[in-house]
Please model this.
Amino acid sequence: MLPEASTLAPSVDRIFWGLVGLSVLIMAIVGGLVFAFAIKYRRGTDAYRGPLPEWMSREVEIGWTVSTLFVALFVFWWAAAAQLPHFLLPKDALEIHVVAKQWMWKVQHPEGVREIDALHVPVGVPVKLEMTSQDVIHSFGVPAFRIKQDVLPGRYTTTWFEAKEVGDYHLFCTEYCGTDHARMTGTITVMQPEAYARWLSAQPHGEDLAGEGGQLYTALGCSACHGANARVPAPSLAGLYGSQVVLTDGSRVTADEDYLRESIERPEAKVVAGYSSTMPAYQGVASEEQVVALVAYIKSLDDRRSAAR
Amino acid sequence: MKVDDTGLLAREPDETSYLTAGTTLRSWLLSTDHKRIAILYAASITVFFFIGGAAATMIRLELFTPAGDLTTADEYNRLFTLHGVIMVWFFLIPSIPGTLGNFLLPLMVGAKDVAFPRLNLMSWYLYVTAGLFTLAALLLGGVDTGWTFYTPLSTLYSNSYVLLAAFGIFVVGFSSIATGINFIATIHLLRTKGMTWMRLPLFAWAMYATSLVMVLATPVLAMALLLICGERLLGLPIFDPRVGGDPVLFQHIFWFYSHPAVYIMILPAMGVVSEIIACEARRRVFGYQFMVYAMLVIAVIGFLVWGHHMFVAGQSPFASMIFSFLSFVIAVPSAIKVFNWTGTLYRGRIRFSAPMLYALGFVGLFTLGGLTGLFLASIPVDVHLSDTYFVVAHFHYIMVGGAVSAFFGGLHFWWPKITGRLYNENFARSAALWLFFGFNFTFFPQFILGYLGMPRRYHEYPPEFQVWNVMSSTGAVVLAVGYLMPLFYLGYSLLHGERAGDNPRDATGLEWTTSSPPPQHNFHEPPVVRSEPYAYHDWDEAPGDADETPQTDPA
Amino acid sequence: MSSTPILVEPFEEPERQREAMVFGLWLFLATEILFFGGFFFLYAVARMQDPVGFAKGAARANLLLGTVNTVLLMTSSATLTVAERAAQAGWMRGARGAILATLALGTAFLAVKGFEYREDLSEHLFPTSPAFPFSGLVGATRFWSFYWFVTIVHAIHLTIGLGCVARLLRLDLPRRWMVAEVTTLYWHFVDIIWLLLWPLLYLVGP
Model:
């Protein structure tokens, strides 16, 4: 049987088995009636076969139409209500970045540890996945956690889970992505927090994601304009993340990950009011992982910390 | 009448049937007779059914073992794409409308032909041309995008013959639009005297609802495929994420067609089953008007539920909620139909002929297919099940257990009318039972596989899934054998079957009032309808008495 | 009416046949509406996602040629209606003249469109052209993708329409004026689509 390895799993299974029960019931009613009628009213029996009064068939029709509608609406309410909490991302989650490409999963922990086709997570801690794809659409599916989310090129998608049982679980790519789709699999290893910490410190440590982004910030020349002492006018990045930005056409956008990413890759798309668009497009210049790092760096800048690093 | 054994083309003594009206190849290929076009369709969809079936058999054989040992990954991907494309567009969609619909609709409404006979012939030529394009794509090396052609895989990354296949599907779309226009116009304008809307047989109503969906959904697919061709051929970016295009937009457009397309496949099946059950249970259809409205409601709401294919695709949660809600709503008219078929059996006088076995099998399989649809309409359960074998099993229950069973049932039911010959009832019954068993054997284990998390379109899989895959693959072999059986006994019937009378099933529809096979112009004089369809009598009568009133007689 | 219309299987009365042809064509137009509806949906999405870039791109569309074409097509609809009425009334010379005028106007539309394409290409207004002036600007790229797609598709429709109109010249119109009626219906539809495209393509830019 499939383990219920996340906090979400029991609620999904409850609905699943509830629906199985409902299906068995309806199959039993329909199948039972078909069998009973087939036997009782087979040709040649002397069962009573008089006409049905008109009103009766109408009442019956209305009866089962209304009751089916009630059942359908009830299941909708039940399932939708169970899904609502999952739509809200937990605030204090461990944030893991996932980049999918044909045909592998590249995973990066906030401390900078990287993994391929594998993900180690601590048990009992909400984990938020920030995912994007380098080429086609993939999908991050972990049956034991009952989660699945398509990973799209040119955009971030997120999902989250909180593992509740230690163990190794399958990770499948569940959106057909070309030749080796069936080999785009991996293992999710859920560990006790202490074991996770030990594992983490034993890994070769790169710079953490934001730190790596900070280096890129200088290396790719961002600081030349966005830095504190730059001569070219460019909007400051400090405190940008999560704030409201007014654009040249007067509209407002929230500076979320997608906005930051778009503004790095295609700066002309949304230009901040008061600035002209002189920034070059970094699409194809910065790799998918570099963009992820840059976004992480910008997110790490709050008001107290200067962008001129 | 003398019984002769000289074969299909033997001439009846006193009249010319549509089969004998001309014997040259030309008289078939250039015929505008709806009955001959139906035969042309029947022959060509049979070819495609066996091509698609061969691909399915290969797929299941590969999945006997967890390792990808029979085919390479690329070959496997091409096989399932081929299977999907052929079965959806070249078998299921034209199956009942192209064959039974073309043959029966004018007969049922009492017309000489469909409204636009030449357009009807053109639709078959479009179908064949499209089929050749698709077969060309197959012979040159295949397509590896899946039948869904998701971007940017299909536009930027696939190195296979996407253009040819997409163009083939674009063309076959026109064939289904032509059929749809013809059927709607025929029903609106060519009903014979006395054939009011509420006297139309449910099969005609089913064709009407189907045609509405064909006419309104197919052009959207045409547009989506055109955009794919444009993006591949000219590089015009619409879905390309590198220039700000949205690949999910393609999914919206695609499913706006492809979900209603499911109803193009299942509505005709519902029509066929309603006819069979009423006739073989010798009973008026329970809740005729509700059946009609249910089909129309399905056709309309069918356009509003496409987003349930995209719960994990990154669409907004609000959109998912609305689509989930509407998907539950559409379950209601489908349930009504199931209850009404069951209710029709009540107080009937049931004959267990082969068509009836197919029809009863349909009711069971369609119910299970529909109920598992509720799982997929529930967002949290769908997140777990989408793109797994659960989905594969679900839609095969609807499309194979439902639509194909009904097609076979209808083929047997009207076989005497179409060919003028009877088939061997015992062989046919055994085939029906064999197929029912083989079908469940193949597809029920896939529900379990899906719940356990096995993704679809995998040619290799973790070994713990093997038990269920072996069951499913064994069932597929049983099923494949089952589909060959009708070829033999129906083929035998075609050449040596006993001659059928005009109304061997004692049914009420207008198609049974003319000779079997029907004359070239369907009726010797235009029939006049004087009663409702399904006037099978409620009371017991002395043995030997007719227990039905044909639509041409007053009730 | 000058003479009795030709009846084709399966019809027995001319009025019913006419009704069927017109009804059938309306059904076909319903599919066309859904087809172009898909394009308009794409337009709406593209414009909503980046209105500023979209307008920047649209500013480069040639308003003059677009407007000339609108006038040409509107006039052609009028001439074809004249032809259809003339055919119904049995005035064959008038019908022929009006059909020829329609053909001329339709061809002129395609010619103007051809000049416009040439000008667009010389200004590299093709999204995959290396010198595309708006590369990196999402809205403008999508505007020009849409522009090429939809105008080519419209031009194909118009070419088919020209074929249908030309066919009228070879028909026994006094007895088959119904064909003229449905041809006119189709022509008007192609015209109306252009009437929607004209503001969407040429009047959006600042």
Remarks:
- Residues 209-300 of chain A form a domain with the Cytochrome Bc1 Complex; Chain D, domain 2 fold (CATH 1.10.760.10).
- Chain A has three domains: 9-87, 94-202, 209-300.
- The radius of gyration of chain A is 28 Å.
